[in-house]
């Protein structure tokens, strides 16, 4: 079932990772990804002090506004509120959606990572604005992830999805078309864009593959 995306273009959702970016300037690398077509950026940082996180998040939020992209903060509701981010993304061990909604109010987005049918239903019932289906494939950026579901598993889970959904986990230029053809609204990537020598061209190339796969999917509908 085709579901129109809400709150922006979910096609290419890029997540920051300090280890992947390395010594390159964060803002420089992220802006290149946005120029290449990333429609959503998630700031994911687990180790830096809160003050530094607020500084980086504020700069990224301003960058996303200039490029008309959605800006999401991973986990840290306090940081999201401090920089007026568009929303937060929560894992299964993070704050419950209902509590996050009370703190964030009705206008900000709440995304939730899900791995199975039970978690999909709980997230949708709780009022999540979008979900992230994880992991499709194995990924070195999150070595403690659950068992990959593969394209067939993703397709089965999509049958229960009623809100915007993105797929995450080991997605790259070689498998992105198969992922898009399952019906997801977009893909989340880290290394496939931010880990490349030219993040702008990497993002632009993935967008082309996404658009081609989406057109193919629509043309093959009965």
Automatic annotation (TrEMBL):
Keywords: Magnesium, Metal-binding, Thiamine biosynthesis, Transferase. The gene is thiE. Pathway: Cofactor biosynthesis; thiamine diphosphate biosynthesis; thiamine phosphate from 4-amino-2-methyl-5-diphosphomethylpyrimidine and 4-methyl-5-(2-phosphoethyl)-thiazole: step 1/1. SUPFAM superfamilies: Thiamin phosphate synthase. It comes from the Bacteria. Residues 12-193 form the Thiamine phosphate synthase/TenI domain. GO terms for molecular function: magnesium ion binding; thiamine-phosphate diphosphorylase activity. GO terms for cellular component: cytoplasm. PANTHER family: THIAMINE-PHOSPHATE PYROPHOSPHORYLASE, THIAMINE-PHOSPHATE SYNTHASE. Condenses 4-methyl-5-(beta-hydroxyethyl)thiazole monophosphate (THZ-P) and 2-methyl-4-amino-5-hydroxymethyl pyrimidine pyrophosphate (HMP-PP) to form thiamine monophosphate (TMP). This is Thiamine-phosphate synthase.
């Amino acid at each position: 079932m085709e579901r129109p995306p809400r709150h922006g273009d979910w096609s290419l959702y890029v997540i920051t990772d300090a280890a992947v970016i390395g010594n390159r300037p964060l803002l420089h690398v992220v802006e290149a990804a946005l120029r290449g077509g990333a429609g959503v950026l998630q700031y994911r940082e687990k180790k830096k002090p809160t003050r530094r996180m607020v500084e980086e998040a504020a700069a990224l939020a301003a960058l996303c506004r200039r490029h008309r992209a959605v800006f999401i903060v991973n986990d840290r509701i306090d940081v999201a509120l401090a920089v007026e981010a568009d929303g937060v993304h929560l894992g299964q061990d993070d704050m419950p959606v209902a509590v996050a909604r009370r703190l964030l109010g009705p206008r900000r987005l709440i995304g939730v990572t899900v791995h199975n049918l039970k978690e999909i239903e709980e997230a949708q019932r709780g009022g999540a604005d979008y979900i992230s289906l994880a992991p499709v494939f194995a990924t070195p950026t999150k070595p403690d992830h659950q068992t990959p579901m593969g394209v067939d598993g993703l397709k089965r889970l999509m049958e229960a999805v009623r809100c915007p959904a993105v797929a995450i986990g080991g997605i790259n230029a070689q498998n992105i078309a198969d992922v898009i053809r399952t019906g997801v609204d977009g893909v989340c990537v880290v290394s496939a864009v931010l880990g490349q020598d030219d993040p702008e061209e990497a993002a632009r190339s993935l967008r082309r593959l996404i658009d081609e796969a989406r057109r193919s999917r629509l043309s093959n509908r009965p």
